[in-house]
Prior knowledge:
CATH class: Alpha Beta
Oligomer: single chain
Shape: globular
Number of strands: 5
Number of helices: 4
CATH architecture: 3-Layer(aba) Sandwich
Distance between the termini: 45 Å
Strand content: 15-25%
Amino acid sequence: MKIRPMEERDFAIGVELISQFNTESLGEYGNYLELDRLMEIFRKIWHTSFVVEVNEKVVGLFVGHIVQDFCSKRPVYEEVVWYVSLGFRKYGLKLFHHVQDWCKAQGIERMTVCCMHNSKTEKLFRLYDRLGFKSMETRFIKELN
Length: 145
């Protein structure tokens, strides 16, 4: 198992992994996966994103970027998607800790993560609580057709 920064060569497998995430977690919210937009995002924030490899195959990713805190202007690392393929989930926390350590080394004092409200919500809330996160906000979504 190896964790490393995302590289441009990882974009195609990144799309595959996020497609898996879309099927597994976003399906009940409608289809939000637009491949052109996904590639655009990768091109902008790949240098602050990470992948986990097993036997030289990328099996997970942690895509995020650095933003300024709205009130203090201090840097905050904001997770966009954290996903590890089924069968390799045991590497998910190692990937998370790697990203957190990288943030600390960059002088970033805060990190935000998100949680889909679906069948895994309670499990993720417990995980984030155990990792020291505090629930700050819940967002709601509505189709305006």
